[in-house]
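Could you join me in thinking about how sequence relates to backbone shape in a protein? We need material for that, and I hope you will provide a protein of your own picking. Once you have written the record down, we can walk along the chain together:

…
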Amino acid sequence: MAGDYPKARRSTTDVGDPPRLLAADAHLDKLTLDQLRAESQRLERRSPLVRGMLSRWLALVGVPTLQSRAGHSDERYRPFRVAAERYWHDWCLGHADVRGLHAFDELLTLAERLRHVDGDCLINIVSAGDNPPALQLIESQQITRGHDPQAVAGQRRRDRATAATAGDPEPIIVSGVELDESARAVAYWVCQYDATGRPLSNTARRILAEHAIFVSGPLRPSQTRGVPKLIQVASVLELLMEYVKGVCVAAVMGANQALLIKRQNAAATVGAMPGLTSPVTTADQRAARQAELKIRPGMIHALEPGEDVVGFNPTQPQQTFPDFVRAICRIVGSEYDMPLEMVLLDHSQSTAYAGRAALIQTYRSVDRDRARLQRLICTPVYRRVIAHAVQRGLITGEDGQPVDIPADFDRCDWIWPARPSFE
């Protein structure tokens, strides 16, 4: 797939380093973007800290409630506003998902989660005859033509085999996104997977941009595809999880009361450890096979001359372990403007005033994500759904009779969950 990410400044000294360390500005071409996406998905699967933090963030963002503003405050159109809100509620519960598995609020949360983990996703608005529009959520890996070769990073590859329109015989396709000369998306190419997880080029289909919503998280305005937000803290989280795992292993070894046997001439008996085929002879030419002990309650064991049994005394976890984990989690939470109390659900080190100030800062970022969802998904989808219903006369009063339809029938407001009170 053609990439639009800057070329990395590689050298002979950074061969084998993670992809995120090789880029001039932290991101590479499409090939490396796939690697970053896979790394972000792996981190979400393996790290309970990431899953919990992301779930709490999505819970803070929440889902909005529709308030129809059709006809402004004119009482003549009040029945229409009530009927429009009722129709939208029924559509969200029973007709939003093209597969019939999710309600609209669940699709909204899934799309936002994919933006954080995969970098972007595509919402295809499916309209079929008299049926109301339905949404098809397409994951980031499927936005591809399946057979496009990897282009040089930072360049756009022109596909001469397929013409988008009669006036543009050479469309510009970048990472599955078809662009016009002004770099505006005009269509998206989507493929299905085969049994091995690879995209099938013979299943590629073209979705016009006017029938789709592209939810993306780019870092620069020139990027066509989004960058996983989790990848910004992936390296720190991976090291933290490895550290926690090592501390837990040391603690388990200490809890199991492991014992060590000390020898005066330990170097001469290294080869006599269990599992080795050739025993080592000591200075007096006698074979000294290292004993393998299994501790049982009340066991008495006679040691060899020069041997001593000592207990394993692990140095982990140390007293600074909780403070170290909190310090790292503060760094991770800064990417999401989340305080430590929300990252770890640990309120033992916080005061009411500090927690209130941190949550106010968090909600500034929450409001930004809410505004993006409202602009990209909620309002366009509602306008499409209510226009379909008005055209087919589906907006009726409680008695089933038609209602007066205002000119601005698709005008609406969105009411998001209120902030918690600290009084």
